[in-house]
Design brief:
Blueprint (H helix, E strand, L loop, with lengths): L2 H18 L31 E6 L6 E7 L4 H4 L1 E2 L5 E2 L10 H5 L5 E19 L2 E18 H9 L6 E3 L4 E17 L4 E27 L3 E13 L3 E2 L2 E2 L2 E2 L5 E2 L5 H9 L2 E12 L4 E15 L3 E13 L9 H14 L3 E3 L3 E4 L3 E11 L2 E12 L2 E15 L2 E10 L2 E13 L2 E7 L6 E3 L6 E4 L4 E14 L19
Antiparallel strand pairs: 1-5, 1-28, 2-5, 2-28, 3-4, 5-6, 6-8, 7-9, 8-9, 9-10, 9-15, 10-17, 11-14, 12-13, 15-16, 16-19, 16-20, 17-18, 20-21, 21-22, 22-23, 23-24, 24-25, 25-28, 26-27
């Protein structure tokens, strides 16, 4: 294996890694929105105030959050049981696999998402009617979107004259450091407002903007129309650019990273962000809230690589299912290498965070029981992704809060969540998940029921804080819920 081949595959592996982990499009836990006893609830609504006068988050654990989601497939959609009890996959195209049911899982646009968030520092304190919050977070955010037509082409092949639309392909994968400063103020006993400003420092990025991409097929040739732009920020990677063409054969990685290179990679890509929120107490029983988070951008200036294409080309086609033909794949790769005509540059570019809008309402039956409904909306590539979460919240003891939730999203209706927060002296510990698996499959070697068979999402949020100056009993000698300031967590 020569060096050229190794360098090409190194870059390919990097792209695959960023694509696979690109599901990083930020998603906080919806279950957390109405929970008491979680100081970091302000990450969903900056108007939310903790009940305690001071909190200090444990580095790395205040909170630690991981979310993975595939909008189309669960474990049982990929690994199915055949007629004889054996495990089969959709690739086994015969009478044993219900290929039609498998293909029905896919929409015109499908997404794979993953977010990882790690708090380096987190603290907050009360100053009169204002609560001040500061945190430093390392975040990875992104999403890979792919068209349903790609799956149809792979599994069903092409008929003469078929046109496949791949324009919904997109990739956004970003790693960044976030420095946030938030203020929440009680304007009155009914209204609390909050704002959180953020300094953003981009660490790495890979993003695309596809305007048009389709394939028209027939038995003689395939005609490909492609118009897209792609940008990447790859620290410690050097790809020479010669007359508009990247020399991937000469790709180099910086093995001995200097302090100046590390500082430039950490601080050279700057951006700003903003969160806004409000809580309003309508009457003694009903409270309303709203927030918009992750308004922001990053300007990428260092270690940039840009590619663009606007072309139409063709290659010899064959009328067989794509998955059955190695020759088909080789023909496509040869055509891409010879015809793709990509133009390269190293110019600055800008990416934007994906803003989310939360609208919530909560009804308090008693001081210890409430129910809530939450709408979460985000716009990604001109498409609105909508979620609805219904929750039942309980506060049976001063040291314990619990929330049970049910979320409808991406045409799935089996997303049950659970959150628990405890206070043991000055120690606050909480664990929250928007998805508690209802059906578990057994791992063969151990027989343990650990495989979430029908889940399309995994979400876990864990936090550990030191808290001081808490109200011993927020409801003691308070006959009406109305008398408790809006926005308290």
């Amino acid at each position: 294996m020569n060096n050229i081949f190794e360098k090409r595959n190194l870059l390919l592996l990097l792209v695959i890694f960023l694509t696979g982990s690109n599901a990083l499009l930020a998603q906080q836990s919806n279950t957390n929105y109405f929970m008491r006893g979680v100081p970091q609830s302000y990450l969903l609504n900056p108007a939310t105030q903790p009940r305690c006068n001071f909190y200090l988050g444990m580095p790395g654990l205040a909170p630690l959050e991981l979310t993975f989601e595939h909008s189309a497939l669960s474990f049982t959609d990929i690994f199915m049981e055949g007629n004889n009890g054996e495990t089969i996959t959709p690739i086994d195209i015969d009478e044993k696999a219900d290929l039609g049911a498998f293909l029905n899982n896919f929409q015109d646009r499908n997404t794979i998402s993953l977010e990882q968030s790690l708090n380096v520092a987190s603290l907050g304190f009360r100053a009169g009617e204002t609560f001040v919050m500061f945190d430093i977070r390392q975040r990875m955010m992104g999403r890979f979107a792919y068209p349903g037509d790609l799956i149809n082409l792979i599994f069903e092949g092409n008929e003469n004259g078929d046109v496949f639309d791949f324009s919904s392909f997109s990739l956004n994968s970003t790693a960044l450091m976030e420095f946030g400063l938030g203020l929440s103020k009680e304007v009155s006993s009914d209204l609390t407002v909050g704002v959180r400003g953020k300094l953003l420092f981009g660490l790495a990025d890979l993003s695309t903007n596809v305007s048009e991409m389709n394939i028209q097929t027939n038995r003689e040739e395939w005609i490909v129309t492609s118009k897209f732009e792609g940008n990447a920020n790859l620290p410690f990677v050097n790809i020479p650019l010669v007359e508009g063409d990247f020399e991937f054969d000469s790709l180099e990685t910086e093995e001995n990273i200097s302090s100046s290179s590390a500082i430039e990679a950490a601080t050279g890509n700057f951006g700003l962000g903003l969160d806004l929120g409000a809580h309003y107490k309508l009457d003694d029983k009903v409270s309303l809230s709203a927030s918009i988070i992750d308004l922001g951008y990053i300007k990428w200036k260092t270690n940039n690589y840009n590619i663009s294409q606007d072309a139409t080309f063709s290659f010899d086609g064959v009328d067989v299912p794509f998955i059955d033909s190695l020759e088909m794949g080789q023909a496509l790769l040869d055509s891409l290498e010879n015809e793709f005509n990509i133009t390269g540059s190293k110019d600055p570019y800008t990416t934007f965070l994906t803003a989310k809008v939360y609208l919530g309402g909560q009804y308090h039956f008693t001081e210890k029981i409430s129910v809530g409904v939450l709408s979460r909306s985000e716009i990604y590539k001109s498409k609105i992704r909508q979620q609805f979460t219904f929750s039942a919240n309980f506060y049976p003891l001063k040291m314990l809060a619990a929330s049970f939730s049910y979320t409808i999203k991406d045409n799935t209706y089996n997303n049950f969540g659970l959150g628990v927060s405890t206070k043991l002296g000055p120690l606050n510990l909480y664990m929250i998940s928007d998805l508690v698996p209802v059906h578990l499959g057994e791992e063969v070697s151990t027989g343990l029921p650990i495989i979430p068979r029908e889940a399309r999402m995994f979400n876990l949020r864990f936090g550990l804080n030191l808290i001081f100056g808490c109200k011993k009993d927020p409801y003691k000698d308070v006959p009406m819920l109305y008398d408790i300031p809006a926005g308290e967590n």
